[in-house]
Design a protein that fits this description.
528 residues; Rossmann fold; 14 helices
Length: 528
């Protein structure tokens, strides 16, 4: 037997022999002939039976006449444990009673001593070949059982025909959808499902494709047993034998009736929405242009108070109202006609909706920023530690999925406007939270320390930080040091903080390092 036939198989052999000379010779010969096999050796039947119970070897080779427990009794015990165990008797006894006893037990082979190793190896080769073949057959049968279960339990319709197109098999879901029983279909042609509404060219293309050995994919409008029409999406493939000749065809089908009906309805809706989509597209373009105009306008902070008030009025009345209307129309369309819109139209309307919200938020931020120069300040003692704690609780509430650690110093008080200082603290801590959002655990710290005789307050984070070479643009309105695709924002928050701190007569600055976080420092009047 060719070694290649079994070297990859885990074959184990148990050899039971009380004669040490024969045992030593055998244990030398077997590994040389079968290096891939595992060899177990016992000096008597009792030990051999114990080894078999523990390891369940594939082949047992045993002598008959042995102390403690002879080979025949041991073989009987082994057959009781595993009836299909392969046992080879090697013995000098050729008595008929022994032979009949061995036959009754179910001994597979009987070889007389002195051992003819050529005959023994030939017998072992046959046993190994049989074991490997049985293993292959078991694997193939299990594979076939899995395939059969998969097809039987598949949510897709499956049909097998012979090379002439005669139906030989349909799975349960096929009969459930079409209404035909399996025995009503087997032996018939798939033409039973035809409605006459599928073009002949489709069928010619189908047969041309699968007859040439290729897979055909397409759709049919077919008829069920009760006369009801249904759409199906089909993939039909040829099956080849070992010689490469087509013997069968396999069809896998999906019922797409609901999808086709929805497509027809959506096509009608899309035709009506095309003009509206163009109008919305133009509105979106104008909104983008208005957004860029606002960015440019707010870079020019040299407007007089009267000009600024006029500008605020224009923004709030001439831009906010149209945005509110557009936002409302988008919500109405999405609520009332969502099921009638195709994916592209729905996405387009959602984008317009989000853009109007973004524009509205930007206008609100801009108005808040512009009013900071003129609003009346109310000075009093402010507990910044308490303010920081409240903001931390709000950040935890709005992002419960994140791991955030806040370190807040106690007893930090200043003198200033409580509302404005809360806006300033909220913007700095909000930025700290935003720019540390990609950390597994964000660490945000608020504290105060003495520097050159002045009390300096700080808020630090372990976020993405920034390049100090770009520090000049940090507090400039509508400027951000990071890509807005990565971190959303309008670039107004820090400009707002700076204006609030300056109105209090304080100073603000920052230090940062890319990937190492950032710290914002500010000074404020101390409480009287």
């Amino acid at each position: 037997m060719d070694k290649a036939a079994y070297t990859q198989s885990r074959i184990s052999i148990l050899y039971v022999e009380d004669d040490p000379v024969n045992r030593d010779l055998f244990t030398r010969m077997i590994p040389m002939k079968y290096p891939a096999c595992e060899l177990l050796v016992a000096e008597n039947g009792k030990t051999g039976l114990e080894l078999f119970e523990k390891h369940l070897p594939d082949i047992v080779i045993t002598d008959i006449n042995m102390p403690v427990l002879d080979g025949v009794r041991m073989s009987a015990e082994i057959k009781a444990i595993q009836p299909d165990a392969i046992i080879i008797i090697v013995s000098a006894y050729c008595d008929a009673n022994y032979l009949l006893n061995a036959i009754d037990i179910g001994i597979n082979h009987y070889i007389l001593k002195p051992i003819d190793f050529k005959k023994l190896f030939s017998t072992i080769d046959k046993c190994i070949s049989g074991i490997i073949l049985e293993s292959i057959l078991r694997e193939q049968n299990e594979h076939l059982r899995k395939l059969s279960r998969a097809v039987e339990q598949s949510p897709s319709m499956a049909m097998i025909t012979d090379v002439r197109g005669t139906i030989e098999y349909v799975n349960p879901i096929f009969t459930e959808i079409t209404g035909y029983q399996a025995d009503e279909l087997i032996g018939r042609s798939p033409r039973i499902f035809k409605t006459g509404m599928t073009s002949p060219e489709t069928y010619r293309e189908l047969w041309s494709t699968i007859s040439s050995g290729r897979v055909w994919r397409g759709e049919f409008l077919n008829r069920k047993k009760n006369g009801e029409l249904y759409w199906e999406s089909a993939s039909i493939a040829p099956v080849f034998d070992e010689a490469g000749i087509i013997t069968h065809f396999v069809a896998v089908k999906e019922d797409i009736t609901n999808r086709k009906q929805a497509e027809e309805e959506i096509e009608g809706l899309n035709a009506n929405l095309e003009s509206r989509a163009r109008e919305l597209e133009e509105i979106n373009r104008r909104l983008d242009a208005a957004f860029h105009d606002l960015e440019a306008a707010n870079h020019k902070l040299e407007l007089s108070n009267s000009e600024l008030e006029a500008f605020n009025y224009t923004v709030s009345h001439d831009l906010k109202q149209p945005l509110t209307n557009i936002n409302g129309y988008c919500q109405v369309i999405l609520k009332l006609f969502a099921s009638q819109l195709d994916g592209q139209s729905s996405d387009f309307i959602r984008k317009i909706h989000l853009d109007t919200l973004r524009m509205s938020n930007l206008i609100d931020s801009l108005l808040t920023f512009s009013r900071l120069s003129n609003c009346e300040m109310v000075g009093k003692k402010v507990d910044l530690s308490r303010t920081a704690t409240e903001i931390a609780l709000e950040l935890r509430h709005t992002t419960p999925e994140r791991r955030m650690k806040f370190v807040i110093a106690e007893g930090v008080t200043v003198y200033g406007d409580a509302n404005l200082l809360r806006i300033a603290m909220g913007n700095i801590m909000g930025n700290a939270s935003k720019y540390s959002s990609k950390k597994e655990e964000a660490v945000i710290e608020f504290g105060s320390k003495d520097h050159a005789g002045k009390q300096v307050h700080f808020i630090s984070d372990n976020g993405v930080g920034f390049d100090m070479r770009a520090i000049d643009g940090l507090f400039t309105p509508f400027r951000t040091l990071h890509d807005r695709k990565d971190f959303a924002g309008y670039g107004i928050g820090l400009a707002t903080v700076q204006r609030i701190i300056h109105r209090h007569g304080g100073r603000i600055w920052a230090e940062g390092k890319l990937g190492k976080g950032a710290t914002f420092f500010f000074t404020l009047p101390e409480p009287a």
